[in-house]
Amino acid sequence: MKQQILSRIENKSAVIGIIGLGYVGLPLFLRFAETGYRVLGFDTSREKIAKLSAGQSYIKHIPAEQVAAAVASGLFEGTADLSRAGEADALIICVPTPLNGHREPDLSFIINSVDAILPYLRPGQLISLESTTYPGTTDEELLPRLESIGLTVGENIFLVFSPEREDPGNGSFTTRNIPKVCGGSTRNCLEVGLALYSKVIDRMVAVSCTRTAEMTKLLENIHRAVNIGLVNELKIVCDAMGIDIREVIAAAATKPFGFTPYYPGPGLGGHCIPIDPFYLTWKARSYGLCTRFIELAGEVNTAMPDWVISKLMNALNDRGLALKGARVLVLGIAYKKNVDDMRESPSVVLMDKLLKKGAMVDYSDPHVPIFPKIRTYSFDLTSIDLTAENLAGYDCVLIATNHDDFDYELIFQHARLIVDTRGVYREPCDKVVMA
User: In angstroms, rounded to a whole number, what is the distance separating the alpha carbons of residues 75 and 233?
Assistant: First the structure.
């Protein structure tokens, strides 16, 4: 069985099935199609399948031309029918792993996907999980399910964990040139996983087991979460002391060793950094361990929107205005600059808190023209054009995401008050409050 799938991978007759065509699955499908593999893309959204099949992209930083080229090549087919899983030689799972209401791992998207394809699996396939999760998920949740239908992992079916490392909007690093970690449930599994991914990824990083690969992804994101929590806390300290935290970071970054700059903001956004650390926290509790650094960083980062709101309230108060009834324009509702990705965006948390305190809130974001329906929040709003007249009509402009498309000189000239959470305006003045 191993030699059979290795041969199909080598001669590119293998069919690659990708389950979940979002920010991770879509770039992966494009990369496999680009290198000559036939790709079968699965997604529960028939609207997404229809757009992709028409050569359209629904993710702003992924050009429609790339999708159209893959479709025109005849190598891509999209479907919502998971009963076709048996047609694929490799099935790569790229589904969300959110937290539930108790900040505990929600593996329902993974489990439901695996359970849905189980009746259609066959000997000789590779199953790869890319969704971020806690150490043990692949071997504790997926392996028993595969073997429950009479397959033997490592002999006639192969199982790996290879965490996604996508960075939406990053022009320097793409699916192809980001080194890819891979761990297998057995040595045979690892060999098959490396053979597949090495055809589309420039550099593979093999690790000893799936748990190591799972922990590697968590360490990457915990590293960022803890360091961002540190600079967010230092921002509050520096603010009280009248020190510009960004000037401090810039000066410290001149040290050629032993320091990596991280930058403060209004909170944490994206699917990974605000969520993934709590997967390890939850799993560690089952070993009787407390992950104090992770939880403290989470507390600091989660509290940042409230600190920003307090700065905004004080700034309005200094001008004789109350937050209740004030008109506030939030600039940028994506979680990071120059993308349309709103997952866990702190901008949306800020909007919600402002509304609950009685403010009248609008937003402007060239990447998100209409506020979408998302899991936690739903506002009936569309993006406001940044004109001199519009800017002058708000009591406060809150810079939450610093898109390059914003005309910051226009904003400075016509806004009455600017609360800047991203350090756009390096010199505070009567009009600009750093937050």
Answer: 50
Size of the chain in residues: 435
240-243 contacts: CB < 8 A, separation 24 or more? Answer: none
d(CA 278, CA 110) in angstroms, rounded, equals 17
Query: Measured between alpha carbons, how far is 126 from 92 in angstroms, rounded to an integer?
Result: 8
- C-alpha torsion 371→373→378→380, nearest 10: 50
Q: How confident is the model at residue 61 (pLDDT cuts 50, 70, 90)?
A: confident
Residue 239 forms part of a structural domain: no
Tokens found for residue 215: 């922990």
DSSP classification of residue 119: G
Q: How far apart are CA 27 and CA 57, in angstroms?
A: 11
Does 222 map to a domain? no
Q: What is the pLDDT of residue 170?
A: 82
- Is 191 in the same domain as 303? no
Q: Which residues are catalytic?
A: 272
- Are residues 202 and 287 located together in one domain of the fold? no
120 token code pair: 């259609």
Where residue 115 sits, what CATH number does that domain have? 3.40.50.720
Confidence band (pLDDT; 50, 70, 90) for 347?
very high
Please tell me the distance from the alpha carbon of residue 236 to that of residue 435, in angstroms, as a whole number.
9
In contact, 428 and 418? CB cutoff 8 Å? no
Q: How high is the pLDDT of residue 101? A: 76
The one-letter amino acid code at 267 reads: G
Domain that holds residue 124: 2-208
8 A C-beta contact, residue 159 and residue 151 = no
5 φ/ψ angles, rounded to the nearest 5 degrees: -70, -35
Same domain, 189 and 323: no
pTM equals 0.91
Q: What gap in Å lies between CA 212 and CA 3, rounded to an integer?
A: 26
Rounded to an integer, the average pLDDT of 236-260 is: 96
Q: Give the pLDDT confidence score for residue 73 in this predicted structure.
A: 93
How far apart, in whole angstroms, are the C-alpha atoms of residue 83 and residue 85? Answer: 5
pLDDT digits (tens, 9 = 90+) for 107-141: 999 999 999 999 999 999 999 999 999 999 999 99
Residues 154 and 20 in one domain: yes
**In the 8-state DSSP scheme, what is residue 99?**
B
- Which ranges of 202-274 would DSSP assign to H, the alpha helix? 210-241, 245-252
Domain count of the fold of the chain: 2
pLDDT given at position 60: 83
* Cβ–Cβ < 8 Å for 97, 133: yes
